[in-house]
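subagent[fold] <- orchestrator: predict structure for attached chain, return tokens only, no commentary.
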Amino acid sequence: MANHVDHPARVALPLTLLMVSLLTDCSPSTIELHGSPYQAQKPAPEFSLPSTTGSDFHLDEQRGHLVLLYFGYTFCPDICPATLAELHQVLEDGQIRPEKTIVVMITVDPDRDTLTHLREYLARFDPNYIGLRAESETLESVLSAYGVYAEKYPDSDPEQYLVTHTARAFLIDTQGILRTNYTFGTPVE
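subagent[fold] -> orchestrator:
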């Protein structure tokens, strides 16, 4: 049996076409999802909250974009800043189109996180990140809809408390479907 060696152009063209399709279309059928994919394909729970952009952020108006949704807070000493930096790396590595991706953080600490403070904090990671804030009752509803836990951890100084919270980023696809979530520590790749 003769050895068969493909001409480099025969190998390069299909690989080039594959890469072009991956980089130009961010639909879930063309990118490989990692993390913890949801078995049941259902729409992401809707919400509308005040944002750092100056107007309300309506999740249902984000169709056509990938939304990476994170619940955190600006006084977080470790997990939140690490996650926000890693999400920035994801946008920078070219696997998804940054202009078609929205990173959103909903604060789990509305008592200290004003929209102005959120905007300044998020801009340190990426000026395009959007921060959202809700009053306690509305926040509880959104947290519940996404299965997110958040609770103040008391401190002797009432202004220096920590908030224990679920450390996951949720991926909502271009059709508004909640596709997967990523736990803290998921490799950027």
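orchestrator: received. Logging for downstream: The chain has one domain: 8-183. Residues 1-31 have pLDDT under 50 and may be disordered.
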